[in-house]
Amino acid sequence: MSYARQMLGTCRVSFNVDADLLAVTIDALNDCAQACMADTGCDLSEENVAEMARCVRLCLDCADVCIATAGVISRQAEYDVGVVAPLLEACAAACKSCGDECERHSRMHEHCRVCAEACRSCERACRDLLGALG
Question: For the whole prediction, is pTM greater than 0.85?
Answer without folding.
Answer: yes
